[in-house]
Amino acid sequence: LKGTGFNESNPMRVGFIGPDMCFHSVSYFFHSVLQYLNPKTFLCICYSNSSKSDNKTTELKALSFAWRDVHGKDTSTVAEMIRNDSIDVLIELAGHTSGNRLDVMAQRPAPVQVTHFSR
Known about the structure:
Blueprint: E1 12-18, H1 25-36, E2 42-48, H2 55-63, E3 66-69, H3 75-84, E4 89-92, H4 102-105, E5 112-115
Parallel strand pairs: 1-2, 1-4, 2-3, 4-5
């Protein structure tokens, strides 16, 4: 993070949004991301669009700085949550699959936005 202004006293706030933060193949890729990002320099905030919760959800929550349940919430509410969390980078985890929140991404709630998985 050298030269970016982000460091241990000013960690980068990374948001992850998607429907598969439960027992699902995507959660296994995502788990390792949360596990290995240094929490001193990256604050990971998850925006779960899943209607179910299981043991994998519990594991992901434990690895996150904060957890937001956005399932059933309207586009503008979720976008405002992300803005209020001051997310620096928002990573969308579903692409064009079921349960995605591309509607939220279209609102540009973070200065940098990417889609993690292209299917």
